[in-house]
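Saturday, quiet lab. Running sequence design on the structure tokens for the scaffold JK sent over.
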């Protein structure tokens, strides 16, 4: 048997991290079993249609390296892979279910349904379709169909008994039919299947062997099994996945800006780091290994090690992973990735990016922090002269002023403005004056950067700024200190 998994997103315009992780696990499981990973777009809910939403899905999966073997854009033996393009596929199966008594035509109008629902709810009950149209005889149904009365097809759900099934992650599950099932619509008035129906039909027709999806579907699964059984089809293996949460009580949310893949890209996280970390949210390799490339994940992944408990997505841990990935990246790659972030504040300022990148790589955790960290090179920020006071360097405002005055002419006399030359001349001058390095270099760094923490020290910054700007900033410091 060839393993076939699928990722079956509804195009909402965003890729939730939980969805990315579902896709990742489905991909890993297929690949480690030499199987196929299928992408299917579940868009039968046309009211929710969002322009460009399928592109978001394609782009995200591609960026993550989760390439599908069959899917809407590349086709495959079970196409089309977009449900709205398969509209004609579903009705015959619904009719078959009507024939066998597992489904029936319903002619209730929206008004009638609303009316009956309101009555039930007013009496304190919970509304469920009341099987009103199940009573219609074959002839009555035909007459209504002939008269062109709008119809839907509903599942004839059992009202008693229970349904049990085995889930790979959650174990043996049992649900009371009366609670977990209702006479859900299979075919809507517009002829489109509902999501619940199309999902079952397509998983079967596409030969899906292992259904991996969020645990919110655990309680819907009895309905799906009812349909599989009614159609005489084999039920796939279920692998439901724990929810991805921010912490024990909070979901990732659109409002807090931490739910979508795009949120993390905008903040300058690396896809590789995100995928690496996401893989570990809900699964553990059973070893100390933390860093995994996608091929390594394919090797190491083990569905029996997926946790039942919600996966906590800790953004600090992600940031830690991200910083590690950046540190391990080669210089050229880092320069390429950091350039647009430098450009946000340094474009046209004549700053040497390759050198700045060298100084920044070790300190970068996420790229969105970069502009703030380098903006001082474009413009000296306003700063508090308290910064000149440093216990360990034995500096205060007065010492700083004296030492900046001492070093200014030295800087001015340097014609060959290289880091090495600046270093040598300044160090010589400090030694000649019998001072400690820190007592000069600290004030110099403050004067030319306006901040206590900088990528590189005084020499590197002075070089990046150039001689004229360095002197201008030293003068500015001197006037602040006078
Ligand atoms: N279309 C469903 C969703 O986006 C997929 C559910 C499933 O994988 O069965 O949540």
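Result came back. Writing it out in full:
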């Amino acid at each position: 048997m060839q393993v076939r998994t699928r990722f079956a997103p509804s195009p909402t315009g965003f890729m939730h991290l939980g969805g990315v992780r579902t896709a990742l696990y489905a991909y890993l499981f297929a690949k480690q079993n030499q199987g196929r990973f299928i992408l299917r777009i579940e868009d039968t809910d046309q009211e929710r249609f969002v322009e460009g939403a399928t592109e978001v899905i394609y782009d995200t999966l591609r960026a993550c390296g989760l390439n599908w073997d069959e899917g809407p854009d590349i086709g495959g033996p079970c196409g089309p892979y977009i449900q709205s393009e398969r509209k004609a596929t579903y009705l015959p199966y619904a009719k078959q279910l009507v024939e066998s008594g597992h489904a029936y035509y319903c002619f209730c109008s929206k008004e009638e349904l609303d009316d009956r629902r309101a009555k039930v709810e007013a009496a304190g009950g919970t509304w469920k379709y009341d099987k009103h149209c199940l009573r219609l005889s074959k002839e009555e149904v035909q007459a209504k169909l002939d008269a062109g009365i709008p119809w839907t097809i509903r599942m004839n759900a059992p009202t008693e008994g229970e349904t049990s099934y085995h889930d790979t992650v959650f174990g043996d599950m049992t649900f009371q039919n009366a609670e977990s099932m209702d006479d859900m619509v299979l075919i809507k008035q517009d002829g489109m299947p509902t999501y619940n129906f199309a999902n079952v039909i397509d998983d079967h027709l596409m030969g899906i062997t292992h259904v991996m999806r969020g645990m919110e579907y655990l309680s819907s699964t009895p309905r799906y099994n009812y349909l599989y059984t009614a159609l005489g089809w084999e039920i796939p293996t279920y692998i439901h996945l724990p929810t991805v949460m921010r912490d024990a009580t909070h979901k990732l949310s659109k409002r807090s800006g931490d739910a979508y893949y795009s949120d993390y890209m905008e903040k300058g996280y690396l896809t590789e780091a995100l995928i690496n970390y996401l893989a570990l949210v809900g699964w553990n390799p059973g070893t100390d290994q933390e860093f995994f490339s996608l091929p390594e994940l394919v090797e190491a992944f083990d569905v029996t090690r997926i946790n039942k408990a919600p996966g906590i997505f800790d953004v600090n841990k992600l940031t830690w992973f991200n910083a590690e990935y950046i540190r391990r990246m080669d210089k050229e790659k880092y320069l390429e990735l950091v350039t647009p972030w430098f450009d946000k504040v340094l474009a046209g300022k004549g700053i040497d990016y390759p050198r700045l990148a060298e100084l920044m790589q070790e300190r970068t955790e996420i790229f969105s922090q970069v502009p703030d960290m380098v903006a001082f090179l474009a413009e000296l920020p306003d700063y508090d002269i308290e910064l000149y006071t440093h216990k360990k360097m034995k500096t205060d405002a007065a010492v700083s002023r004296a030492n900046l005055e001492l070093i200014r002419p030295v800087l001015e006399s340097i014609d060959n403005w290289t880091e090495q030359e600046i270093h040598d001349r300044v160090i010589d001058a400090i030694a000649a004056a019998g001072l400690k390095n820190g007592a000069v270099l600290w004030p110099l760094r403050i004067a030319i950067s306006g901040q206590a923490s900088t990528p590189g020290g005084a020499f590197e910054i002075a070089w990046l700024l150039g001689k004229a700007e360095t002197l201008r900033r030293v003068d500015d410091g001197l006037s602040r200190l006078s």
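Notes for JK: The chain has a mean pLDDT of 97. The pocket of glutamic acid is lined by residues 8-10, 42, 199, 213, 217 (CB under 6 Å). Ask whether to fix the surface positions before the next round.
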